[in-house]
Amino acid sequence: RDRSASLAVTLRHLLALPERPEIVVVDNASTDDTRALVAREFPRVRVVALPSNRGALARTHGVRALHTPYVAFSDDDSWWAPGALAEAARLFDAHPRLGLVAARTLVGPRNEPDPLNEVLAASPLGPAVDLPGTQVLGFLACASVTRRTSYLDAGGFHPLLFFGAEETLLAYDLAARGWGVTHCPEVVAHHHPSPKPRPGRPAAQRRNEVLTAWLRRPLPHALARTRDLAADARRDP
Fold first, then answer.
1. Which of 8, 80, 161, 218 has its CA 20 to 30 A from that of 190?
2. Can you give the pTM of this predicted structure?
3. Range of the domain at 163
4. CB-based contact 117:155 (threshold 8 Å)
5. pLDDT in tens, 168-205
6. Is 150 found in the same domain as 96?
7. Is residue 122 part of a domain?
8. What is the CATH number of the domain that holds 141?
9. Which runs of E-coded beta strand occur in the chain?
């Protein structure tokens, strides 16, 4: 939202992919020149213009606007490596229970591995005989590919969470419906986040972690998670 210059960089990368995917930009009520820029410079790209900022729920509007069997998410500062989408499609084709792939994420111009990669690879859930990669209950939204039917079956991102740590609840809901969520490092995404500070982001993430615990986890876990996050918030300057 309101980052047309960054979006233009992302679209150039996506349009250069050998897979030539259909691209839909869901605009969260930007007040800059986002819509005009896409119409002028990227005529192949379709825009779904939302009347208000819907946060992560905008991704659900994008999924509904598409009719492809698989949907890859990108934010306005992320894109897919050449061949990554073809590899993801191959994995989905070969594994009917696979609902979402969490990619390996490379950060910035130096392609530094995102620390989340190691966390996902070390998931205690381990592998499953009918799924590729390692089973996980978390992912980075801008580096994920989903089966369209599984995403809609699980209800997509929860509207209550808006933005910030919204992925875990969706992973829970996919798993609860029998869909596999796995980390597959052979699927690669690039993420170039802005170095500018994001005021309020840590607080939003803690809020959503608490809400996720209360919405989906047993009472003892929700209480313990709330206590831990409250203590963490008190230590945060």
1. 161
2. 0.92
3. 57-196
4. no
5. 999 999 999 999 999 999 999 999 998 877 777 778 88
6. yes
7. yes
8. 3.90.550.10
9. 24-27, 46-49, 70-72, 78-80, 98-107, 112-113, 134-135, 144-147, 180-191
Domain count, the chain: 2
Q: What DSSP string runs through the chain?
A: ---HHHHHHHHHHHHT-TT----EEEE-S-SSSHHHHHHHH-TT-EEEE-SS--GGGHHHHHHHH--SSEEE---TTEEE-TTHHHHHHHHHHH-TTEEEEEEEEEETTTTEEPHHHHHHHT-TT---TTSSSEE-S---GGGEEEEHHHHHHHTSS-TTT-SSS-HHHHHHHHHHTT-EEEEEEEEEEEE---SS--TTHHHHHHHHHHHHHHHHS-HHHHHHHHHHHHHHHHH--
- Indicate the DSSP class of residue 47: E
